[in-house]
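[Protein data]
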Amino acid sequence: MEREVEDLGQKQIYEVGFHLNPALSEEKLSGEVTGLRSAIERSGGVIIAEEFPQPRPLSHIIIKAIGRERRRFASVFFGWMKFEAERTAAAALKEYLDKSENFLRYLIVKTVRESTMGSHRAVFARGRPAGRRDESADKTPRPKMSEEEIDKTIEKLVIE
């Protein structure tokens, strides 16, 4: 109980990742991001880093009730913000995001300040992750090494 009381006044680092409606115009998209920034700052939060929402295809369909209609989304605008705030700010941010029809999904997590860098997805080519070798394309036979040859090679590589 004492720990909970202590934690209420201390600041924590949070990150919010979010999916926005892909039908938004550029102007409305900017307005939603500005609204999110304002909601964080109104709660006493300070933005540390962010990535403006970019269009992304989804691996599964998101269904969201907007008004009286259930809409299906196969792509979204995905963005994120990292901020420092008190615990009460996360609850206020959740309330803001729940009220908005344009935020389809979101996730608020506690994190650390040091890991602030943009996450980049692997680029896929012909169904394979980038950087991954196609074993079937390498037709050259590899020479077999004996254990003795392997040991000699390792000894050459080891710096004493």
The chain is about 30% helix and 40% strand. The mean pLDDT is 81. The domain at 7-115 is CATH 3.30.70.60 (Alpha-Beta Plaits).
